[in-house]
Amino acid sequence: MDHFQIRDGVMHAEDVPLTLIAEAAGTPVYVYSTATIRRHVRVFREALANVESGAEGPWIAYAVKANPNAAVLATLAREGLGADVVSGGELLRAIHAGVDPAKIVFSGVGKTADEMALALRHGIGQFNVESEPEAEMLSDVAVALGTTAPIAFRINPDVDAGTHAKISTGKSENKFGIAYHRASAAYARARALPGLAVRGVAVHIGSQLTNLAPLETAFTKIGGLIETLRAEGHAIATADLGGGLGVPYDPALPLPPSPAAYGEMVARVTAGWNVRLMFEPGRLIVANAGALVSRVIRVKEGAADPFVIVDAAMNDLMRPALYDAWHDIRTIVPRSQRFTANVVGPVCESGDTFAMNRPMDAVEAGDLVGFMTAGAYGATMASTYNSRPLTAEVMVDGNNWAVVRERLPIEALIAADSLPPWLK
């Protein structure tokens, strides 16, 4: 569910007409609904109500990579969520927005020594370590700082998530984690290293999962590994089950499993583990909370269907070009007429295409359209390709709204360059 609804013939974000935002903030512009974010947090928490997770309850660490806007992070911090980060930059963003460092988990295969030191100085809750060499580097950094790093090894269970190949992370050929069969040796090595406190296991097999079976398979393997590690003398106190639960993009496709169904599966599979369970939802929390609002530049005749050329482009919303991803395209002020069209952006690439042969409301130059379910992996993946400024972002809360990231003028991009002495 989201809070983007047609009222009096105009799409609103909560109580604010998107036409008002488009006129005031310009287009393209990302618009985020606070009510939707809060609702999704509540629904996810309720789904986990029956899982066994110790006295502290589940540790929910929002995946910052999905949407790192400070207003989004601050909203989630006030809801009590932690953060799953994969860079020093995401770590600083989360802390700046008010996330408790003790609720931060640092994942990712390429942590540098500087990033490790930064995280240790801030006292984060856990490092999800993805290789033996990473554990050795973290040991050195922790010893040099005179502190101890709490760690879990991310295990690669060699489970096909059944999602797009570019967002699958749990197969043996993927770069993530330590192979399941090498886990015992990795934990034995880590126990011998100074400055490390081995405390848990972690697994994450992919994003936008539409079937619970791969997750259940992976979690079952992790449960067996916990038993093995404890038998080998390791005190396993946490189990990070990652994120990845899919959201509905295309209404013509079956709905992904609900958070409630996911929670029931987790409760059943993890019963008796005697750990604090950790989760890293990202897309599930923010995807439906965002829309990219764009203005039609012109409608151009095509060989078969007309081309609707909008002022948003692949540099603003990369998912269709990168993953052939489907986004619902709605008119902000709907007309009664319909047509079939190709919706494209102005970037000089044939890949700058949002939809081909898409049945949709008929539009004309100057009309506004919304690319829905764009709150995750939208603005965060944007670039300045073709010297286009980064898209502005707006947050709505009831009848209040504010620009939460300004659209920097092209002059700011130009000013960031400098000429070498021989060209001045």
TrEMBL record:
Cofactor(s), names only, from the UniProt record: pyridoxal 5'-phosphate
Catalytic residues in the record: 348 (proton donor)
EC number from the UniProt entry: 4.1.1.20
Domain Orn/DAP/Arg decarboxylase 2 N-terminal: 36-287
CDD domains found in the cross-reference section: PLPDE_III_DapDC
SUPFAM superfamilies membership: Alanine racemase C-terminal domain-like, PLP-binding barrel
Pfam family, one: Orn_Arg_deC_N
UniProt-recorded name of the protein: Diaminopimelate decarboxylase
This protein's encoding gene: lysA
